[in-house]
Structure formats: structure tokens, C-alpha cells
TrEMBL record:
This is Alkaline phosphatase synthesis transcriptional regulatory protein PhoP. One of its GO terms (biological process) is phosphorelay signal transduction system. Residues 10-126 form the Response regulatory domain. Transmembrane segments: none annotated. The gene is phoP_2. The keyword Disulfide bond does not apply. The lineage of its organism: Bacteria, Pseudomonadati, Planctomycetota, Planctomycetia, Isosphaerales. Keywords: Phosphoprotein. The modification 4-aspartylphosphate is found at residue 59.
Amino acid sequence: MRVHADPALRVLVVDDNVDTAASLALLFESWGHEVAQAHDGPQAIRVAHEMRPHAVVLDVGLPLMDGFEVAQKLRQLPGGDRVLIVCSSGFNREVDRRRADEVGIDEYLVKPFDPFALEGMLAACRPSRQALSA
């Protein structure tokens, strides 16, 4: 287990697979971050509005609203332009990567991915990102 002296980030994990969301949440918590979970698009928007995350790790294939729509709505929230948005998908299609760019997703990971890749992304987001505004 790694121990981080850096200040904690607020991280929102969004995945309709409850086990995947819980596993990522536990990992981020072990790194010292404050973590919330959501399991569909509308819930993700509500939680983000309340939590004001520094980073969002977002599954593309969500019920009710896909991850691209969620990312687009997150970007429209006050301060949403400063939030790190990382999406994960089972598809490695160019059309999906273009869509991710169009809606402002910062990083696109293809499942299965090394969760420790997220550690570097979160560390890089510390000095340059701010949370959603109140």
C-alpha cells in the first residue's frame, strides 16, 4: 500500500457496476482521497453538484445517461472546466475517442486498465485543478 503526504482530492467514481465502483473507491481512499460513488448519470450530476469533486472517474456505459452526456453536463457546472474527467470504456474505437474529446474528457482508458495509472493522473491534477465551484 502506498502512503501519500499530498493533500487529499475529492474524487467521484461513476460506474453502474457497483463492485467496480466500490473497488476503485477503496483504492482511492487508501491513497488518502475523499471519495463518493454514483451508479447512473443523473445521480452522478447530483453528487458532483453536492461534492464539488477535483476529479471524476467515469464509466462510458451508464444507464439513463451515458458517460459522454455526464461529462458534458459536468463541464457546464460552475468550475466544471477545471475538473479532471477520466472515462473508462470497454471500447477502443476511434469514434468513442473523438466523442470523448468533443465533450471535454481529459483521459480515455480502455478496460481492463491498470488502476495505478489513475494514481499518476490524480497526482498531476493536484496543483493545476480546482474543485467545482459552490
